[in-house]
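Objective 1b: paired records.
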Amino acid sequence: MSSPFPLYPTSINRWSSWAISNTFKISYTTKAKKAMGTHNLTVKQLYCCLLSSIFVIISFQASFSEAETHYHEFVIQAKPVRRLCRTRNTITVNGLFPGPTLEVRDGDTLVIKAINNARYNATLHWHGIRQLRNPWADGPDRVTQCPIQPGRSYTYHFTIENQEGTLWWHAHSRWLRATVYGALIIHPKLGSPFSFPVPMREIPILLGEWWDRNPMDVLRLADFTGAAPNVSDAYTINGQPGDLYRCSKQETVRFPVDPGETIRLRVINSGMNQELFFAVANHRLTVVAVDADCTMPFVTSFIMIAPGQTTDVLLTADQTPGLYYMAAHAYNSASAPFDNTTTTAILEYKSAPCNANNGKSSTPIFPQLPGFNDTNSAIAFTSSLRSPSKVNVPLQIDENLFFTVGLGLINCTNPNSPRCQGPNGTRFAASINNVSFVLPTRNSLMQAYYQGQPGVFTTDFPPVPPVKFDYTGNVSRGLWQPVKATKLYKLKFGARVQIVFQDTSIVTVEDHPMHLHGHHFAVVGSGFGNFNPQTDPAKFNLINPPYRNTIGNPPGGWVAIRFVADNPGIWLLHCHLDSHLNWGLAMAFLVENGVGKLQSVQPPPLDLPQC
């Protein structure tokens, strides 16, 4: 439920009463002084002054009263969910799959009590919310908090500050997010202008993955064997697989539209391990925002969207009335097994004719999606993204970081062991700069830092790879095994940071969607092959690059981002393919406090879970 109320109502009302009463005092004093000849204000001028003062006070108070505080209770619990002909106990929020949609305005506050009635530890992450000075509400397990244990609760309390658009929330503990997720929609403040024509309606489109078994068991098996986890059995749109899967046709999601109306699709890739192509048959899509940042509008027949990313598109129902499939299938950039099925929903014109023989609607028209391995189309889409106007991009860089991102293999002393079922008797791993990230067990990183607890992490994460090599060429097998460690990189408050993410060909090249918590960043450049620090920066877009919170590198290539470290705390950076995160493709930044309270981490809440 949502309970709005004005921020600081008592203090504002007292201030307005004081101002009005003192306006009358000023009026009385001025009249007395006029009799003495010291002032020459007329009664009319005083009256206008009084009305102006009251108007300013009311306007000031109204600006605060626009902000609301929304109270919610999220009960994490197992509920029976039937998909693909089978009913399974599935971890949900409030019994819903997908979970509840949160709708707020910029400036609003969310107070969400998470009650864990499931049998697993759990945390919740508000993906893309900056959480300024408030890492305690960010959510990643063992990074900014210890998990919420079964039978316990924790209240996430945070304010939306200068953000609007499409974001989402999800579990951030192991593989719970396979089914624990939902949309988080931030509307502009009342009276704020839109950057594009306001659509008649808007529809959240959550793309997901479904396993025909408990996802936590899928992860547990992979952890034991060291092999890659089994791929999903279906993709979903708003929780439903669609017409092309067994026992699913009756539940296919339908979106009725009126001919000529324009709708806003808020597309979210809440899947676990797969970038996706998405399209609507015979309809053009106008991209207007990504990751809750506006873009220069451009028209396309499809989008490519990675796990963690959001894309807002406008669709006009300008085709012959009928049925048209929305569809999504994999963009597979790696030499690895993947789920090659296709999920569908139906865009249904309200005036669509029925089949004369049986009274049923005709078969929907299917869209043309790029091929599974069509990297050219994927790169063409992401390369089209621009901010709508000039943006502030750091031009002088304080921290110039070069991060290799990719897979690796851990050698086993007994390659025939059931725990070494990766390639050639190894175990899969992943790393950044050859460091495979290990989550702490004794405490969360943020709690250990705030409490001054030693021995939980070190701050010697390497700014460049320990060994320079031909990253996308034929890499020596001696470089395939990373080092496991819990290393952080320290940043001063306000540092201007550039990171180049360089893919490697170790095991396979791949698009790694990298997500940075607590910040958003400008995507200033990308390319194939090895990054050249002498020539490639000259091609950077430092005028109107897109801003994002999650970005992938071209497979066998690199991508460069820039941001200002203006948010104190510990913030996770990781690949949003959850199999890679589990293997260690992550690190964390420790952004030091700046000067004063407004540049320092706020104290932790009293109910913060303990490990």
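Objective 1b, second protein:
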Amino acid sequence: MRGESVALNCTPLGVHDYFMLEWYLADRSGVRHRLASGELRGSEIQGGVHSSRGRSPPYQLDSQGRLMLAEAQVGDERDYVCVVTVGATVTAEATVRLQVFAKPEATEVAPNRGTLSVTDDIAQEIATCNSRNGNPAPKITWHRNGEPLQVPMEVNTEGYMTSRTVREASGLQSLTSTLYLRLRKTDRDASFHCSVHYLLPKGQHGRLDSPPFGLTLHYPTEHVQFWVGSPATTEGWVREGDSVQLFCRGDGSPSPEYTFYRLQDKQEDVLKINLEGNLTLERVQRGQSGIYGCRVEDYDAEEDAELSQTLELRVAYLDPLELSNGEELALPLGGSLATNCSVKGLPTPTLRWTKDSIPLGDGPTLSLSSVTFDSAGSYTCEASMPTVPLLSRNRILRLLVEGSPELRPEETLPKAEGSWTEGDEVRLVCSARGYPEPKLKWSQAGGHPAEPAPGGQGWVSSSLTLKVTSALSQDGVSCEASNPHGNARHVFHFGPVAPQTSQAGVAVMAVAISVGLLLLVVAAFYCMRRKGRPGCCRQGEKGAPPSGDPELSHSGSQRPEQTGLLMGGASGGARRGSGGFRDEC
């Protein structure tokens, strides 16, 4: 390979004590030029280079008699002759031919960027392929859609190629190839490229491909396609109010001019002319349904080519629904109903009645008989179009059922009658429904205001929390629901109410303590009264006659702290009479 070092060997056959070796360069005319020489002295060859003939770096002769070439160049491709002389007359020689290989640079391609007409009946220039600085000269092949093109070198109307090789100043070779083809309409999407094939040492080969390229072709229109784009359904319907796009495409190149029109009374009403082939109808209305057309203005087309297409634009619409009895209707309990739902639309819509998302039946009529409070609620009339899935409407009918209230009592943690104990807490709940909405009233104070009950269906509920007493066991607690159509009443009964055990014990203890305190007070008063009477309050003096002043004085001398009391008691007794005190004693 170019740039590598080369060693040219020359070894005499047999065993010799002495010989002389010479290297020559043979030019293309056969003239030999002496390069180097040497003599065998011992085990080494001693000598040198006589002339490098301008080569850089110069030749060298090593100790084994090899001619050394550093950095092989294309100019080194010559015949080198080795001449060996043994003695005075015996001479032998051998020739080695050196070939230097160079890999070419990346392949370059220059396609024809003009517009090529398929109507021309001659081969036109397609592209030029260049391979630079290789050795030996490479070979160029052309490919279409990955397949090699078998084109000759001779000029003809279907296709051929030309080739030119140039030797550069460096000795390397450059190759240029130009491809000519007669084009067809099928070549509009074809991919072309060229390949450079080059040789390597030891019989190997290499390949360098150019980037692929396409051609710009001019060919007349043969067919036209015209269709409705999104959001059209599979059946071709578009919804009223949507923006609709119409697409028109001809198979000619370059893109022709497109004319959009609408047919009205067999007359063309031109809507738009452009090169893109698109027409947008903003917020289409039902009046825009009809026949639309697209025409390709291609003057190179064949006379029998169909350059115009039409289609029918169908605008689907759905008007608001109408209810024969309005959006709200009141019926008496047990009454009947037959109401209709009507709608205008295209294509013909389907109607269905539902209540709480549960289908009741298909068709425009809703029939109900013997209505109950459960029949009250919202009924929905739904209009839809199977062919236009996203187009639908609905209308809601609110049915009111009038009647006297219906009552539903409930106890939390209920007990059987007779199982209640004084002071037990109970929560009573009364639920009612009817129309107009009933009012709830309790016989006891403390009831919560009525509010919608869980689960809906028109129920309202009120709760009352209280403690059970013996009085409630006799009368119970009543709940009453009323509206203009009547009322309903329920009484919660508790039966006999047992007293609380702990409360009875407290009562007995309280009575015992009260009696004990009363007895203590009476005893104290009794004792105090007896102390005021000597005959009654001293032992051993029963039956003794009342004494006079000396006795009192004596008594007073013995108990001075009670003198005043006794004296006052005696004098009082004298005034009231002694019999009164005795009677008290």
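Confidence is low (pLDDT under 50) at residues 534-585. Residues 571 and 577 are 10 Å apart (CA to CA).
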